[in-house]
């Protein structure tokens, strides 16, 4: 029986995945790495330093920079990203998310956040959604990022639930893999060909309601 929901943030609650992409694209251009749709999709859900490594690898440049230089590049990307999220307001919440969170709350489901982003709490604050997420997995405590299940296992643990009692919600292929590997039920939001491993697919956040989920299960 499902008792809780573990949410990804970027691309699920709000469209910050676009800001992440723009900021990485900018950095890739600067590094002379060709930006492709495959690279863009592959970066979704991936931690900051792992994302940088992925971009450098795509351009065969992973050995061209010292660790210190890599940290500086990742910091540059993050500064650009933070610049964008500071402009966000509750109007940036994706369609249907607020009513869905209210529906979960009024039906007694527990809610936690399993975002790889260290900016997660700031984004929730800008969206005025902090109250809905009493439990947030701190990505700094993880030994491995998505697609490793660790973040979703912790998301369930914070709610004192077993993984089987949780549904994870994701927009990234790496995230859906993490949910499945954690033994939770996965919802994939977005292109169903990219998220084909999800137990339930919705094309858009607006389609996600408790009724639609119950029907799909
Ligand atoms: C994930 C995003 O939620 O967080 C990724 O999908 C991002 O694109 C990752 O790289 C890490 O975010 P941050 O804010 O800690 O750099
Ligand atoms: Mg995401």
TrEMBL record:
Pfam families: Hydrolase. Keywords: Magnesium, Metal-binding. Substrate binds at residues 8-10, 24, 43-48, 51, 77, 115-119, 146. The active site is at residues 8, 10. GO terms for molecular function: beta-phosphoglucomutase activity; magnesium ion binding; sugar-phosphatase activity. The keyword Kinase does not apply. The record marks 115, 146 as: Important for catalytic activity and assists the phosphoryl transfer reaction to Asp8 by balancing charge and orienting the reacting groups. CDD domains: HAD_BPGM. Transmembrane segments: none annotated. Binds 2 magnesium ions per subunit. Its cofactor is Mg(2+). Mg(2+) binds at residues 8, 10, 170-171. GO terms for biological process: carbohydrate metabolic process. InterPro entries: B-phosphoglucomutase_hydrolase (IPR010976), Beta-PGM (IPR010972), HAD-like_sf (IPR036412), HAD-like_SPP (IPR051806), HAD-SF_hydro_IA (IPR006439), HAD_sf (IPR023214), PGP-like_dom2 (IPR023198). Belongs to the HAD-like hydrolase superfamily. CbbY/CbbZ/Gph/YieH family. PANTHER family: FRUCTOSE-1-PHOSPHATE PHOSPHATASE, GLYCEROL-1-PHOSPHATE PHOSPHOHYDROLASE 1-RELATED. This is Beta-phosphoglucomutase. It comes from Secundilactobacillus kimchicus JCM 15530.
